[in-house]
Amino acid sequence: LGSAVPAVSGDLVVVAYSSGELFAMRVENGRIAWSDSLSYQGRLGANAVLSDIDASPVIAGNVVYSVSYSGRLVAIDVRSGTRIWEQEIASANTPWLAGNYLYVTTVDNNLVCIRRTDGRIRWVRSVPAYIDPEDQEGPIVWTRPTLVGDRLIIAGSHGEVRAISPYTGRMLGILNLSDGVRVSPITANGTLYILTTGAEVVALR
Asked: What are the residue boundaries of the Pyrrolo-quinoline quinone repeat domain, all occurrences included (predicted)?
């Protein structure tokens, strides 16, 4: 699995570890201000034994959002370390924050929209889990969502790019690429850039 990138807020840096632990450390001396564990023992299945945090923590205002592979998404007060809310959601992808909502692709192949203030789920959009769903062959891995204008974009390891409404979760369109996508798309100046496994960069407006 991958590794999370630390997030900084003022004099604190928030670091996620492969053990499933989250630490807030003081920039000037490295002392721990608070810590939390995102390991989730109540979840059954293969993901339960993987407590790893691959997704980078994201800070907005005084709140840090973090999700573990084992099935815990949390919002924490970055100053006190107090949990504001939590959801039983597992992901290896960094959440995308926009306005009052948080968007995340899960290990269960769902795209979920969550209200940032209280953690309530607004909508869930299922996406394909296998290239051959009948025989459950060719598992598909989806990237983190990227918001471009009024569309959420996710890309799959099988080469499919989907545009989804951030307001309702409704499917807006599908684009098929010649190669798969493993790296999350990025956006700059209204253009979406996608790097395929065939080393091709696709730019979409």
From this structure: 2-123
C-alpha to C-alpha distance for 35 and 21, rounded to whole angstroms: 7
Spell out the SS3 assignment of 70-104: CCCEEEEECCCCCEEEEECCCCCCCCEEECCEEEE
pLDDT tens digits along 118-128: 999 999 999 99
Could you tell me if 6 and 30 lie in one domain?
yes
Q: Domain containing 104: what range?
A: 1-126
**Helix, strand, coil share (%) of the chain residues, nearest 5:** 0, 50, 50
- Binned at pLDDT 50, 70 and 90, residue 39 comes out as confident
CATH number of the domain enclosing 134: 2.40.10.480
Per the structure, the count of domains in the chain is 2
